[in-house]
Hints:
The chain is mainly alpha-helical. 88% of the residues lie in helices and 0% in strands.
Amino acid sequence: MPSNLIKKYQQSFLTNSFYLYMSYFADYFLLILFIPFIARTVGASEFGKIGIAQTFGILIILFMEFGSSLMVTRKVARIKDDNKQLKLFIGKITTFKIFLLPIAILITATAFFVVPIFSDNPNYIIIVALGAVFQGISPIWYFQGIEKMRKIAFSKIIFRLIGFILIVLFVRSSTDGWIVLASFSFSSILICLYLYSVIIRKMGLFRIGGLSESINIFVESAPSFFITIIPILYQSISVFILSVYVNPLQLGFYYGASRIHRAFNTLYGPLSQAFFPIISKINEKNKIKSRVLIKNYFLLIFLIGLLFFLINFFFAEKIISIFLGDKFLPASETLKFFSIVLPLTAVSNSLGRQWLMVLNKDYYFATIQLLSSLIAFFSFYYFLPIIGVKSLPVSLIIYELTSIFLVSIFLIKK
């Protein structure tokens, strides 16, 4: 049976994974290629400010997505053959995201007054928030749900490359950090507008929904939103606390190690996003086949995670030296802690974000995320005075272990 399943679904899985890797190359690995130039040009302190701003941007992106990568993608995968229903659903989701805009503005205004770096650099938060809103409303969920990832990949490669070219042309000193952020935001706006134009050309103008429909979307999306936002919220708050507790140089070292960890961590993304619509659709029709597929996926992604751990742990100094420069070598110890997180993330991804979501156990998984994040946050706060910036990757290790433990309890009972 596993052999037949591989033959039946491998073309879709491999093709979509390939295009999603191209997409992630544009989002993250072009950044890795340009990080040496950015880090050395703006310096460690300014590099840390850019990192804080982008951390806030991720928070706004996830808020504007509001669980799209999970619930909405799953829904599109199941109704993609019904054009009428799909078009109505696109309109409802787009309307819902419009209703989220005032809240995103309120969150941005609050961060401006609460976070000292944003109060001192108001242009940073405005630039980042604008790009984050457009990235958050981008209809990537539609293309993932219908398993047509090529448009995502090509749009990101083209527009992100334009952004990086602008960085190389105009970033010249430590006062140019805002140009880095503006280039990212500009490319996000272009990607969003392009993807919506593709949908409209294919399906025509869609109807904007009403408030009652948006409320229904909110209720359906809430568990998926909490699943995605809770871990990021705990991490973002931890980073903001870190920015107050440590000096700008240490923050820059942390951000350097964090960016490298994130680059490796995002390599799971294409496999996860290509697999999710496939397993969601198959589980509706054949429970036995879906179990076989999830076991194969678990083995694959765990082996990848183990490889990532070995690379980052044993070659941390070399990786830091190549991508950030010798001035960032103090970040190598932090990167080693981050390396331990990588295989744990692989396990929690396959058990939680894949299998529990396929089983429609959204609320249970959201509760697990909340408990794990709370435990991790208190761990971070406890270790911060003791080990400084390393307290954040240590808290991530605790977070993943707690999540794996709680998910496993549920699956064993099931």
